[in-house]
Structure formats: C-alpha cells, structure tokens
Amino acid sequence: MTTAATTNPDAQVTHRDDLEVTVAIIGAAFSGIAAGVNLKNAGVTDFVMVERADDVGGVWRDNTYPGAACDTPSHLYSYSFAPNAEWQRSYSRQPQILAYQQRVVAEENLEPHLRLGEEVLDASWDHASQRWIIETTRLNITARFLLDCAGPLVEPSLPDIEGLDSFAGPVFHSARWDHEVPLNGKRVAVIGTGASAVQFVPEVQPQVDRLLVFQRTAPWVSPKLDRRIGKLERRILRVVPVLSKLLRANQLAYRELGHYPVMRRRQVARKAAEAISRAMLRVQVRDPRLRAQLKPNFEIGCKRILMSNQWYKALGRPNIDLVTEGIREIRPGGIVTADGVEHPVDVIVLGTGFHVFDAEIAQRVHGRHGESLTEAWGSDPKVFRGTTVHGFPNLFRFASVGSGLGHGSMVWQMEAQATYAVDAIRTLDRMGMASADVRPSAVDDYIEDVSGKLQTSVWMGGGCRSWYMDSSGAPTVLWPKSMTEYRWTTRHFDVENYELRPELAATVPQPVALEVVA
Does residue 169 share a domain with residue 151? Predict the structure, then answer.
C-alpha cells in the first residue's frame, strides 16, 4: 500500500552539518515560496528552506492522479508579485501549477536557500538562547524564527476499515497515485467521493472494466466554467502584464461577492447555488434512483463545493456502480458492505483525504514548555490570526488551523500570512527584541470573535461534518470572514498582542511589559 513518505530511521545520516540562520522555513510549496520572496524583499537573506522531498511544489508535486487540477481560477491561484500570462486554462491543471512554482523559485533566486531531501525530525524552542533548535535529516539548524509552511494537505489519511491490509491487490491513496498499476480491464474500487475522486473518476472510467464508487455522503457539485486560454490571449497578457492583475482582481471580486455569501448562509445566494447544482444533476443523470442517491442532504457550502462537468455524467455510465451501503470489511478479494454483499475488485483507490489536525509536523514542533503542538492543542486547537500559537515563540504557521478560506484562494491567504510574519521579524529587530509569544488573552479574544462568526456560518449550521472540523465539531480550520478582511487583519504585526523578550532571555525571568501608544 502506498502511504505518506516518512523518514526511515535506519537510513538517517549520523553526521549532521551545523547551520545558524535568522529564519528557517519548513516546506517549499506555495506558502514557503511566498515566505522566501517576502523575506528577500524585506532585506532578510539569512534564511533556509528545508523540504523533505526532492523538489518544490508540495500538493502539486505529490498529487499526480489523472485529471488533477485546481478549483480556484488560475489568476487568483497565483502570487500577486508573479502574475502568470502563460496559464493555458482558466482552471489550471497539476503539471502547469507545479511548473509555475518551479519558475517562481528560479526567477526569485530561491535555489541558494533550498535544502531538498531534508525532513524535519524535531524542532524545539530553547528558552535560554531564544532560538529554535531544528534537527533535519542532515542538518542541525539554529534559527531565531521558524516558519511552518508544511501545509495541511500533505499526509494522506487512510480509512480505519477492518481488513484493509489483507487485500490481495494494489491499494493506494489518490495523493500517492501508483502509475505502475494498470487499470485497463480491471475491477476498480474508489472509496470516497471528495475533491480528488470527482476529478479522477471520470478520467479512469473509460479504462476499467468495472468501477465501484463507494459513497458515504453525496457532495454538492457545481459546473466548472473551465476553458482553454488561447495563444492570442496569452500573448496579449504577456504584452500588457497589468491585464493579469486585473483578471486576478476580477476573480477575487467574484469569489467575495458570489461564493462568500453562500458561506454566510445568505438565502438568495445559497438558493441560487443549490438550484444550479440541482439543475445539472437533473440534466446529466436520467435515472431517478441514481439521481436520488446523488442528492446531498445538507446545505450547499457545508462541505467543500466540488466543481466538475463530468462527475455526474461518469456515474451514469454502464460500467460504474455507485455503492451507498457502508463498508463493513475488506477481504483479500473484495469489499464487503453492511448489507453482507461482497463486491469483488482487483484494485482499491483511496480518496479519503488528509491528516489535518494530527499531521506529523505538529507532533515534531515543541514549544517553551516541551509540549508538541499536538499535545498543547489536544482536541481544541487555538491559533491567533491563524498564524501564531501561545507557548511557541517566534513560530509562524501558514495555511494552518483558523486560516483556511472556504470560499477563496489559499495562495492569497498565504501571501497575507507571509506579510504578517515578515513584519513581525522586522518589528522585533527594530525594537531590539529576541522573541514574541502571543498573549493568552489575545488568543482567547480572537477565538471568541472567530467562533461567533463561525456559529452563523454554513459550516456550523449546514447539517454536515467535514474535514474542516476538529474533534469537538467546530470548523477550526477555517477563517469565517472575507478574503479582504483576512488581508486587512494581517497587514501589520500587532505587537500589542504579544509578550516580548530581549536577546538575553535567560537573565530576564519575566516578559517585558510593553506599553503601546495608539
């Protein structure tokens, strides 16, 4: 079975080089690249980017399943500082998104800062030196600041199904697609009907003899207004670069004015979005029984709204069976559902999401009390501005708990967090301070404000459970306000919400009392 890449202790290098930097960045995907570019623009060149894989790209390096593409418009899913006139589709596909990240790394000269093949084994805050002590595969790094840009959609989540390991055929997660496994003429089972399955099922359906799609909850699926961007249009965008920025602004406005009201449960917007989805279902699925199985039983937006023009069409093909009975167990030759029926299959593809709250990196980062992020949070993660955590000085987390934009562009959000983190570094340098730890009272006030907004959102009141939610049932992954509000909130480092310590922290037992004059 193919799973997330992990370090093999037997293969670890015993000798490690020592490296001392101002900033250490974990991860070299969209958020890590944004952080690196912002640091360079601010004049901070003493930083290292450690990446456990052998190339940049993160999600868009790892997810190579058939049909992999973005569901955010291309120009909005781009950096503001690196508009791309070469997008070939209005919703870009995996190879071109990866190529875009690689190009930005090259154009911004980030290669000298990259350390590929370096997995973070441990990162611990040393109170005496006011530094992060980081151990990777081959490096011992000392850094004033740690930017966790590992991301939440990195480690595939495998379902807890009895007998999964006993299956005699190939089993792999969609995020670790095994291209060596032939699907032609096979009976293939797909477990899960989320964002990845909606893309790869229509792609593999023509190849297989039989495709069994195991659905637990029917998702809302909307049309994907995708089109090819022609050579003439791309040439115009190259000649007039400002047009790419205008397109990005237009796509932002559409998300803010069209999608955001659905998240806020605005009746007119919600009803309109549901009507569009239901109309597509009626047109593309003629079988009344199948159509009933594909009808969602929760409000649109409660789970991620999926975008596809081919999903419903594919499920109506003669060689696809939609199975809505729960899975009881897996045997060497097939999958047994709750009704006792055994479904013979040759290959199992898992479209079962990712570890978000219990990712490995959260278990490996330890704060000033020795606790890991996972231990400090328990079942109630609290992150200020979706970026900083009490008890973890000089740590800034990107695309983390409390910062996800359920209706917008994660690249937009990552840029906002990079602005916040870099301003924090410059502010501490200007004030002659070594570290900043967010105040518990600031975290509590922030969480209370965000929680109040979440209570009236579709994620809390829409009648579903999703990967957005923690174990208590709160959608703590998400930011409940608009994209523009998040950018405004993180435009400056709000130093008044932090406890500051000078360079010689060991001689100062108490935080410095900072009086901020408005």
Answer: no
Residues 425, 295, single domain; the answer is no
Collapsing DSSP to helix, strand or coil, 247 comes out as: helix
Q: Does residue 9 lie within any of the structural domains?
A: no
Domain boundary among 295, 319, 350: 350
* Phi–psi pair at 434, nearest 5 degrees: -90, -35
Is 222 within 8 Å of 277 (Cβ atoms)?
A: yes
Please, are residues 285 and 314 in contact by the beta-carbon 8 Å criterion? no
Helix (H) or strand (E) holding 331: strand 327-331
The CATH number covering residue 346 comes to 3.50.50.60
The answer to whether 199 touches 219, Cβ cutoff 8 Å, is no
Instruction: Report if residue 3 sits inside a domain.
Output: no
Sheet bearing 342-344, strands edge to edge: 327-331, 334-337, 342-344
Q: 10-residue block means of pLDDT along the chain (518 residues)?
A: 42 72 97 97 97 96 96 94 95 97 98 97 96 97 97 86 97 97 97 96 97 96 95 95 92 83 81 94 96 94 91 97 97 97 98 80 94 87 91 93 68 94 97 96 89 79 69 66 89 97 59 41
pTM for the structure as a whole: 0.91
Helix, coil or strand: residue 376? helix
**Are the C-beta atoms of 118 and 137 separated by less than 8 Å?**
yes
Q: Which helix (H) or strand (E) holds 283?
A: helix 267-284
- Name beta bridge partners: 320: 211
Per DSSP, 114 falls in state E
Minimal CA–CA distance to 478: which of 401, 423, 425?
401
Number of neighbouring beta carbons within 10 Å of residue 73: 23
Residues 222 and 253 in one domain: yes
Residues 6+ apart with CB under 8 A from 191: 159, 161, 214, 327, 335, 348, 349, 350, 351, 352
Q: What is the DSSP letter of 257?
A: I
Query: Residue type for 296, please?
Result: P
- The structural domain count of the chain equals 2
Residue 101's domain comprises 15-155+355-507
* Predicted pLDDT at 408: 74
**Which one of 350, 369, 384 terminates a domain?**
350
The pLDDT assigned to 511 comes to: 47
- Residues 117, 194 share a domain: no
* pLDDT in the model for residue 480: 80
Chain center to CA of 145: 22
Secondary structure E strands in 192-311: 210-214, 221-222, 306-307
- The per-residue pLDDT for 93 is 97
Burial class (CB in 10 A: 0-12, 13-18, 19+), 199: buried
